[in-house]
Amino acid sequence: MEFKIPVDELQGIISRLSNVVKVNESGITGMILIDAGDDVKFKATDGNVNLVVTAKEVEVIEKGKVLLNLDKVKGYIMKFVPLIEDYGTKDFHFVVSDKLGLIKTKTCFQSGKPAYKKLKFEVFKPELYPIIKPFGEAQLIVNSNILKRGINRVLHCVNPGEVRKAITGVGITILQDSIVFAGTNGVKLAEFSIDINADLIQDTKVMSYNLASILRSTLDDDAQVFVIFDGRYIYIKSNNLYIIGNLIIGEDFPNYRPMFDLDRVISFPRVDFIDTIHAVMDVLDAEDNHRLTLNFNDKTLTIKNDRVDSVQTFDEPFESNLDIDVNGEFLDSLLHDFIGESLELNFTDGNNYIVFKASDNEKHTALLTVVKRR
Asked: Which of 51, 58, 80, 226 can bridge 237 by disulfide, Cβ–Cβ 3.0-4.6 Å?
């Protein structure tokens, strides 16, 4: 096998593959497969997610396949500077035999005296890499910004180590006019919906945490994404990327929507509230559940713990009074992505949770369990 690939092209591919290889749990830990045919495909897997990146610019001299350890070449490859005028390296020249691989380079300097470098790497049998199913007919077409934005709004609520399997990933509900993202660790929950047009029958899938993280960091911005759901797998194709990941099956994602139906509400300025919450983060006690007291009383809002307090008085009384303790760290993470001028805190007396909504944006909702009083 032999091919040449521009320096910046390969470095971009390696960066994407590293999102998968760094969490590798399969029997081919740290390995990537390079498949040079009419084009060159770079493949990586963590045992649950497969990522295939097709090189956009490449010169194939001789077709073939090779399996190699990414860690043995990544640091070397990433240090090269792409050629600009008379300084840098134009491309990587891969030459692979049955027993040995070489990466050849020519680095130009302003002195006019180029340096010729050659890195040797061990090769392994490409047959060890799992076979990847070709992409079929897409069931859903969606913009990448929608997926990345939705995942980003809820992923912070997900704990992949949670013992309850159904909440170790991101819940995705596809409706005819919207796609709804949800994540929870059993204490906090975030839901975010975005308008789309879809022909799929309403259904909820649970995407693994690793897959959601890889999509968020790997997909191009503002690109079409083609999606197929097939049993326990999801197949995603976008530009030069092909991603196959596991769905979490066997347990349904919690039916949390009825919990949003509460009978009391308190409205207040969003920026004031979030600024105060964020300001006290460093003085919360981790050994006491990052406890923070929220007290809405008539016209006065008090936010405090054992070390700090903030008191703010408004012109008009709140719709209701409320005095609760919450995990301040969780509260801060939930409120981070809200937009608009005001927030609504919804609750029902006797319930052990509260719900936040944006007064002028019904697409974003967050739920937080209260902390039991000492």
From this structure: 226
Q: What is the C-alpha separation between 129 and 68, in angstroms, rounded?
A: 11
The two three-digit tokens of residue 210, written as one number: 């690793």
Ramachandran category for residue 222: left, alpha or beta (phi over 0 → left; psi -120 to 50 → alpha): left
DSSP assignment of 215-275: HHHHSPTT-EEEEEEETTEEEEEETTEEEEEEBP-SSPPP--GGGG--SEEEEEEHHHHHH
CB atoms within 10 A of CB 112: 7
DSSP 3-state assignment of 59? Answer: strand
What are the residues whose beta carbons fall under 8 Å from the beta carbon of 279, sequence distance 6 or more?
310
- The token pair at 268 is 């207040």
Ordered mean pLDDT values, 10 residues apiece, the chain (374 residues): 98 95 57 95 93 97 96 96 96 95 97 97 91 92 95 96 94 91 97 85 88 96 95 96 95 94 96 94 94 97 95 97 97 92 96 93 93 88
pLDDT computed for residue 98 by the predictor:
87
Separation CA 200–CA 174 (nearest Å): 7
Report domain extents, the chain.
2-128, 140-246, 257-371
The CATH topology of domain 2-128 is DNA Polymerase III; Chain A, domain 2 (3.10.150)
353 forms beta bridges with 369
Contacts of 288 by beta carbon, 8 Å cutoff, 6+ apart: 374
What is the assigned CATH class of domain 257-371? alpha beta
The superfamily in CATH containing domain 140-246 is DNA Polymerase III, subunit A, domain 2 (3.10.150.10)
User: What does the pLDDT read at residue 201?
Assistant: 63
The reply to whether 2-128 and 140-246 are identical in fold is yes
Cα R_g (the chain), whole angstroms: 26
